[in-house]
Every structure is written in structure tokens, then in C-alpha cells.
Amino acid sequence: MTSAERRDQAAAFLALHHADGGFVIPNAWDAGSARVLEQVGFPAIATTSAGIAWSLGVPDGGHVDRDTMLEHVGRIVAAVGVPVSADLESGYDDVAVTVRRAVEVGAVGGNLEDQVGGTLFAIDEAVDRIAAARDAAPAGSFVLNARTDTWFGGATGDPFEATLERASRYLEAGADCVFVPGVSAEDDVRRLAGAIPAPLNIVAGLASLTDAPTLFTLGVKRVSLGGSLTRAAYSFLERAGRELIGPGTLGFLDGAVSYADLQQRFE
After folding, report:
1. What is the pLDDT of residues 53-101, one digit of tens each?
2. E strand residue ranges, the chain
3. What is the rounded CA–CA span in Å between residue 21 and residue 135?
4. Parallel, antiparallel or unpaired: strands 119-120 and 115-116
5. How far, in whole angstroms, is CA 246 from its chain's centroid?
């Protein structure tokens, strides 16, 4: 991908956040899942650190090093023609290096978390990390999605107020949008969307099963899935395995895409 193509993709991706309504960005865990999701018609694809970790046979939460994670991000980018946003976890040991490496493998956006091991960074440190990410990938070249985990219980006091404070500081430091996972009550989502002066990203299928159209009516601009698609795929695999080891029947193949069709999709 040339630098001009990367800028065009970044611009197209950012434009999705400011279009009327909202958009769903599904999370792929490998090149094959990314290609299928692109063929379904999604205008952009995100990666999932959880899904990539599970595909490697290890748990989520820091068990995959940066080089391995970005190698998989690069494979996903190479498999599709739509913009790809990378799950960069907390930026690993050097946020600027991580973001530059993500740009090098072709990602035109990325999430950056403000916690490690369930413990929030102090707000000033978290702001500095967002600023370092922005310096590494200037505005217009990379859509920086600042994730705050205040709703997971790490914040002291009112999570709503803590979220607004962090969101405001992150936007001042250069973030393009704000990601608040863990919110389940629709009223809280509506309040956040109304108070945060930037596109709001909410993850569906984690703390809440609120569907995307409803989230859009609440003011959400970007709906992601995190590891939910990967969980669904592995759940189906487990059910198929239990059917095989139990009655030995092949009911799990009902409705499955044919070998020839899947071959054609990957050509």
C-alpha cells in the first residue's frame, strides 16, 4: 500500500465516524475471517486481540507479544481491500513504536487502552500515551480510537464522570474518537453519546446485548464486536465436536458453505 492509498483509506475510515447514523465494524481474528467479513459487505474491519490470542491457543490479556500480534494484523490487512483498524491493547512497552509498526503493516486506525491487567493508568500517564500515539501517526493518516476502561470498575467515584474527564483529555491529546466498553444501560450510553464531543464507540455483545440499530438511536457512531464473533465461531466448533464425539452425526453441516464455494471466495 502506498502512502497515498493509506491516506485515502484513513480518510474514508474517519468519514464513516461522521456520516449520518452509524456503522458496524466487525472484529476479525485471522486473514480468512477478515476476507469473509469483507465479502459480506462491511466497509471497514477491526482486529481483535482476544480473538488472535485464542486462535494461537492462549488466553487474552497480554499473552501475545507485540511482534506476533502485529504480524497477524499485517496478514489481515493484506487479505482485504477495506480499511483495517488494529487492536493495539495498551500499546505494549512503547506506544509510539507500536503505532508506527501498526502503520507499517498497513493499519489505518487503532484502539489504545488506558489500562494494563485491569488497572487504569493514572490519567496524566494515559494522556501522555495518547499524545505519543498521535505524534507517531499524525491526524489524517491514522484514526486513533482512545479506549477507556472506566466502566469496568477501575475508576474511583462515578464512572460516568471519570469517563467524561478521560474522554475530554484524550481528545485534547489528539484522539479522533472514544471507545467505552462495558456500558450496559441504554440511558448511560445515551448520556455518554450526548456528553462526549466526538464519535462514540460501543462494543456490542460484551456487557450488553443491545443491538446496533438501537445503539445508533442512542447516539453511538461506531459499534464493534470485540471477541464476540470469535466466541461464536469457537462455540459452534465445540458444538460440532460434541456432536461428533457423541452421536457421531453430521447435523452441524446443515447450511454450511460448500467446499467449492469457499475455495472460490478465497481465490
Report:
1. 999 999 998 899 999 999 999 999 999 999 999 999 999 999 999 999 9
2. 23-25, 27-28, 45-47, 84-87, 109-112, 115-116, 119-120, 143-147, 177-179, 200-203, 222-224
3. 30
4. antiparallel
5. 36
64 touches 52 (CB < 8 A) = yes
CB 84 within 8 A of CB 106: yes
Cα 186 to the center of its chain, rounded Å: 21
Domain boundaries, the chain: 3-227
How buried is 116 (Cβ within 10 angstroms: 0-12 exposed, 13-18 middle, 19+ buried)? Answer: middle
Q: Counting Cβ atoms within 10 Å, is residue 234 exposed (0-12), middle (13-18) or buried (19+)?
A: middle
Give mean pLDDT, residues 140-159.
91
Count of residues in the chain: 267
Phi, psi of 259 (to 5 degrees): -60, -45
Cell of 195: 456528553
Domain spanning 3-227, CATH class: alpha beta
Q: d(Cα 259, Cα 254) in Å, to the nearest integer?
A: 13
